[in-house]
Amino acid sequence: MDQVAEPELPDSRLTTSTLPQGIDSASPFDEMMSRFDVAAQRLGLDPGLYKVLREPVRETKVSIPIVMDDGHIEVFVGYRVLHNIARGPGKGGIRFDKNVTLDEVRALAAWMTWKCAVVNIPFGGAKGGVICDPASLSRGELERITRRYTAEIMDLIGPEKDVPAPDMGTNPQTMAWIMDTYSMHARHTVTSVVTGKPLTLGGSRGRIEATGRGLMLICREAAPVKGLTLAGSRIVVQGFGNVGSIAARMCHEAGAHVIAVSDINGGIFNSKGLDATALVAHYEKHRTFEGFQGVERVGNADLLELDCDILIPAANENQIRGRNAPNIKAKIIVEGANGPTTQRADEILNQKGVLVVPDILANAGGVTVSYFEWVQDRAGFFWREQEVNERLEDIMCQSFRDVSTMAEKYGVSHRIAAYMLGISRVAHDTMVRGLYA
C-alpha cells in the first residue's frame, strides 16, 4: 500500500475558530462532523473543499409498499445515501432496523468515505437502510421488501456506481435477492452489484470473518504502543454478533485471554480467561450464554469498566460516554462498532492516556474484503482464502502504521489522525479531478 500521502492544499484555509466541545451523544451525523471539523482544521482544509466533502452527493428516500403474508398492505420507508465518489464507486451496507433514520444513514455514508480512504481502497462512501423489524417479518416478507427496495433504487446502484453490502439486519441471502433483482432487470447476471454474497453466487472466501479478523490484527498492531503483546493481553468484548464473536475467537487463538463478553442480554466473566472457541460454538447452538460453565454474570454497563488491557466495543453506537469514560480501565480501545465512543468520552480517554483505535480504521476489515470480492467478481477469478487473509493483513497493518505516523507527526489522537488521513486523500483526489461545471 502507499505511504501516507498529504495533498498540497490551496492557500485559502478553513478558519473555524470555535469547534464543538464536549459533545456527548449528539446525532450520528453531528458526532461524525465534530471529528471531521477538528481534522479539517488541523489539515488547514480549504473552505470550499470543506463544503464539498461535507455534503452528500445524493440522498434518496423511497416508499416500499408490500403485500404482507396475511394479505394486508404495509408501506415501509427506505433510504440510500451516496456521500462521495471522488475515489471510486460508493460502498456501504444496507441495514434493516426499526430505528433507521436518514440522519443515521447520512452519517454512516460519510464514515464509509473516510474508512475506504484510510485503508486506501478505491471506493467512496454510501449507506442504505429500511425502517422495519426483521425479527417480526417472515422470510417471504423480507424478500419482498428487499426486492421492491432494490427496484426503487436500481438506477442508483451498480458495479461502477454504488455497491451495497450487508449490515445490521441483513445477510448474504439479502444480498443474493438484491443481486438477482438487479440482474433480472439488466437481463444478465451482475454479481459485482453487491458484496457479502453467498460463495456460490460470487462471494469471497474470508468475507464473513473479515471484520473480526481485522479487529484482531489491529489489536496485535496496537498492543506494542502500550508495551503489550496480543498474546497474554486481557481482552473484553462487548457485543457477540458476527463481529464480536469472531474477534473474540481469533484473539483467543492468538494467545490473548478473553476475560469477558456480552450480548444484548448481558455478559459473562472469568478473570482467568474464557475458552472463546468453545463459547462461540455454544452460542451458535443455543443463542445464549446460559449453560456455559465456569463463568460469572456481568451487566453490559459494568463490562465496559472491567480491568483489562484491550476493550473491543462491538455492539451499538454511543456505548462509551462522558459518564462512564472516567471508569474505563482498558489501556487500548479497538472499536468494532460504528461510533461507539462519543466526543466527550474521547476527550476524557485522551486525557487518561487510553489509545483509542477508531472505527474507521479498526473495523475496516469488512469493507476491505468486500473490495476483494468486487475485484474477484469483475475479474471472474477467485482467490484462495489464505490469499484473501494475507492481503487483508497487509492492508490493515499498513493502514495502522499510516494512521500512527499521522498521529505522531501532528500530535493528535489516532481518531483525529485517521480522519486527517482519510480527508487528505479524498481532498487530494477531488482537487486532481477538479469540479465539473
Write the layout of secondary structure elements.
Elements: H1 28-43, H2 47-54, E1 58-67, E2 73-84, E3 90-97, H3 102-118, E4 124-131, H4 139-153, E5 162-166, H5 172-186, H6 210-222, E6 234-238, H7 242-253, E7 257-263, E8 266-269, H8 276-286, E9 296-298, H9 300-304, E10 310-313, E11 332-334, H10 343-352, E12 355-357, H11 359-362, H12 365-379, H13 385-410, H14 414-433
Parallel strand pairs: 3-4, 3-5, 6-7, 6-10, 10-11, 11-12
Antiparallel strand pairs: 1-2, 2-4, 7-8, 8-9
Helix pairs in contact: 1-3, 1-14, 3-14, 4-5, 6-7, 6-12, 6-13, 12-13, 13-14
What can you see in these coordinates?
- This protein has 437 residues and is of the alpha/beta class.
- Among the domains are: 56-190, Leucine Dehydrogenase, chain A, domain 1 (Rossmann fold); 210-362, Rossmann fold, CATH 3.40.50.
- Helices cover 43% and strands 16% of the residues.
- The chain contains 14 helices and 12 strands.
- The strands form 2 sheets. The protein has a 7-stranded mixed beta sheet, sandwiched between helices. A 5-stranded mixed beta sheet has the order 1-2-4-3-5.
- Helix 7 (242-253) links the parallel strand 6 and strand 7.
- Helix 1 packs parallel to helix 3, helix 1 packs across helix 14 and helix 6 (210-222) crosses helix 7.
- It is globular, with a radius of gyration of 21 Å.
- 53% of the residues are buried.
- Mean pLDDT is 93; it is low at 1-20.
